[in-house]
Specification:
This protein has four helices and no strands. It is an all-alpha fold.
Length: about 80
Amino acid sequence: MSPTYTDLESAIVAFLVRAKKPTDDLSPERSLYSGGLGLDSLEAAELSVILEDTFGTDPFSEGESMPQVLGDIFAFYGVAPAAA
């Protein structure tokens, strides 16, 4: 079963809270790295593991390219971000 937007958002927010990263702006254009959420390589790997464990696949190891923005993660799972 494919994850829903809410499933993905919940997993990402839980990770961001544990990593002490901002959760105020989860727009699809928000960078995962500097100038955005500020993930470093270890944190990106941790997020990859969480997504793999939760949903069975992850865009960091199985995607065509490395995710750069939150929207890349949602697109990998074929989920459109919630309308504002």
